[in-house]
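Run log, item B.
One chain of 756 residues. Sequence copied directly from the ordering sheet:
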Amino acid sequence: MLERTGSVARTADGLKHLNTITVPGFGVTKLQLVAVNGGATSSYSTQLKTTPGSAAPFCFAPGRLANGNAIDGVNITYTINDPTRSARRGKLELFVRFDKDPVWSIELPAKQLKHGEHSIPWSGYLPAAIAADQSDEANAKFTHRFSGTSGVDKKLFPDNFITAADSPYRLKITVGGDVQGTPPTAWTDFHILLHSIELELGPQDTLKEQRDKDVWTSLGGNLPKEGDANPTKVYLKSNLFKIKGEDMYDNTLFTEYEKLWAQGPNIPVFAKVWVKNAQGQKENAPESAVALGNVKFLWDYEDIAQNTAKFKRAPVKTFVDHALKYYNEDSRPKGDNCHHDRGGKRRDRPYALVGSYRPVLPEQAGENPTAGHKAGHFPFKVEKCERSKRYWSVISYAWTHGALQGKTGVMFQPSRMAGDAYRLTVYLAYDRNESKEPLLDIDGPIDAVVKAKTGIFEIWRRINIANYIRKNNAISDYFAGTAWPEVLSWYQEAFIDPDLSAKTATYLNAVNYDSEADKALLSALGADLYGIYVPAGADQSTGGTALTFNSFSEMESAVKDWFLNNDPTMTDAEATTARDNWVARKFPHRLGAGATDAEKTAAQTARYNQRLNDIAPDIVQAALDGLNLLAAAADGVSIVEFNGLQNQPSRSKTLGVAIDAKGRTRSKCLFMGFAPTDEVMAHEVGHHLMCPHAHGEANGDGDGPGHSPKHHDKDDYHCLMSYNRPLQTFCGLCQLRLRGWDLDQLDKDGAKNEKT
């Protein structure tokens, strides 16, 4: 019992006597949360503290199942010491950090203030009323229940449940009467915590463009996993080819690739968020997602440095190393991905570049979970971080209900530049300042207990080998031989993947080819030369070579026959003389007077055969144009292969030509192969990919016809696009162009591409 001094009275003897009024003691002695499953209990105190969360942590998963039962129920238990029933009023209040005023409160009627132990089952829902449920007066034990919906701020509690966004919480009970209770209050702290985050590839129906859906498919339904030994290749379909020769000599490769992939692919990256229950385990009930209301998740990305040690040749490594060292220290995040100035997305702080800044993690308006998810839309709200702080990162929010409850995510939009590499990390932005801004939003290293990382995404360009057409079955399969793996390795060094998965393999239609080749020969040669160069009754579909011509001696015989047929009065001797004069004019031997007849014939034969070799490519192209092979071809490189260009031996072997074929488009091209080697195949397809000829040695040896110094490393004399054999991979400048970099922002002098 407590005593206090009352009024003062004066007696007859004048002495003062102290009148003592005795008041019965009452107060609240305990307030705790007790887990229904597992017996975990929060600590409590009757000594007021200033900041919620100062006591030992206790957590549970809020939410209710479809049947109305609590997911991870707790009991709010409190003890009232009031045997004389002096308590007149009481209330429960909920506080969050940095707020002096309660975010929720409920009055406790008299039945909830009786002397004894009280228990209220709680799912984390914030009710409007409380009522008595069961009373055991004899043992002073009482159970109550919450009901109704309170008028809490929906901005704080979107689903009327407590959330992890404002954790930790302080639950406080206060009792009072005619006088102050002793103690008048008790409080307990508790948390709503997240157990873990698991990353996954978001569904394909969040994407609009078919090109992005193709990227999604190529990922096989999975994201790269943290700890994977190798990067996951992100293939961007890039069937971009020259449609005229001039395309090789300007910056068309860059501008067309920019049109095709613009800001890069869109890859939906989702995070499944698990709430921690009172047993410290992840809560499996999907309804626990109500705990994610207003929770912020910070998404960050790393720029993974490129390993240039993979390059086969030192000049290539040197050139690329220079180009990668471009304002690396100033960029955020630091790294060596292609810089904004050269078409990429790495850059320094974009204070004045609101319009031109190319985000890797763009903002998203999100969808209303109540309305559900619609195909072609991204479901989650995503906001940029502070422009003066972690401007390259974003904040996302989760769905607390609906088809995607318990999930959040971002639309990852890496640069289109092949060779760029990234890793994503999502953090629970659990801590914040008094303005409720995430403390992770800083320009510097960050970390958090609850986080998840992907493995490495590495961007690649992919071109398709669409059709492989051999003249006949006597020609061996090029792709089954040893040349193709070498070609593949040279392109892969430039982060280009020539894909064979959709290749079709057929043979030329013999009748059609013979007809078109015959027409092309007649058109190119004229009727007279046709009869002289082409064997009588020749079938151009037979044999392995693209065209069949008369030998030199057969040509001489045909010339003599022509003279005899066109002048019946001419004698055989006269026809022979006319033939010799005609052949001498057309194919002069240019040997000295002392040359033998055999030497003269050999020289003329060589000149004749070379003439056939010179005219044959255009004739073969005309024949193939007549077949219009590209009309029904899929996008990509179509290849027509023969065993040789023409049947007569020549000093210079034409093994392949990147022709501007009929029916070509920006996404379709045709390569004529005449028993191509690995060098020829790679070189000619390089032309289709808009790489011009390169220079050879400094003295001019090995220069490709019409070579363009602007497009090649000035110090590399063995670029695959030169004539300086052996050809050995693309030069550094070619490789950067093929990866998508802006030629106009690069110099042929590699050292000039480095900036600090």
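Observations after the first pass:
- The longest strand covers residues 451-470.
- The chain is about 20% helix and 25% strand.
Flagged for discussion on Thursday.
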